[in-house]
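User: I'm writing a tutorial on reading structure tokens. Could you give me a worked example: one chain, its sequence, then its tokens, then a sentence or two explaining what the tokens reveal?
Assistant: Sure. Here is the example chain.
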Amino acid sequence: MKIRQLLAGFMLISFAGIAVADLEPWKDYELSEGVTSVTTVKVDSNMVDKYLEGLSKTWAPAQELRKELGHIEGYWIHVSQLESSGDFNVVLGIDFKNSAALQPDKAKYDAFMKKWGEENQKKSDEIVMTYPEIREIVGEYMMRSVTFK
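And here are its predicted structure tokens:
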């Protein structure tokens, strides 16, 4: 009986500690103005290099152009060293200045397409058509950095 009471007491203390630990945004921490679009991808084993080759001819040059035009802050690719483990093994990220930069914008689109050109778009379309054979997008997220005060 005493053991049950002792365990119940520990549980109550544990839960009370959690309640006291609640943080408040802007008081205890701040969220960044910048937003990062994160896509998690599960690429078939032994196909990561093929996928990266495609990204180096399509996704990366497109992001580089968007960066040059000032539409994004930056972009990145992370690859797991354990490509057969977990739900994903490649992560693609695009950093935006703020939420407003995510809004559809015809002028930005037109400027991008003018510089990107029909030939790049055609090449990109051809390569992207092969992606479903080797990969699956398993998650998409919009994330902000947290800074504790």
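What the tokens reveal: DSSP finds four helices and six strands in the chain. Residues 10 and 16 are 10 Å apart (CA to CA).
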